[in-house]
Specification:
The chain is mostly helical and about 100 residues long. It is about 75% helix and about 0% strand.
Length: about 100
């Protein structure tokens, strides 16, 4: 959430934090929906069972998409910060073994 002055309410404009928050809340929601599925199943209401499973799957997909976006953002950020001269001096390589 952005305040009027452009800073995030948390004091920072950090999409990494935002994506991690989406992942956390989506997975927490998916976990919570399991108990809702159990409650509906106990009551014998298959319509609600299917509804809660569908909502649970939507949150899982949302978390997976946020994880993909987080990886992409972090890779781009790392590439922007990459200084090959400094890395050479420190003995760091991007070569994959």
């Amino acid at each position: 959430m952005i305040a009027d002055n452009g800073n995030a309410v948390t004091g920072t404009r950090d999409v990494v934090y935002d994506l991690i928050s989406v992942i956390y809340h989506a997975l927490k929601g998916a976990e919570t929906y399991s108990s809702y599925v159990e409650d509906a199943d106990f009551m014998g209401d298959q319509e609600l069972v299917q509804f809660f499973r569908r909502v649970q799957e939507e949150d899982r997909r949302r978390a997976e998409e946020a994880k993909r976006l987080l990886r992409k953002h972090l890779a781009r950020e790392a590439a922007e910060d990459w200084n090959p001269v400094e890395a050479h001096v420190k003995g760091i390589s991007l070569d994959v073994v």
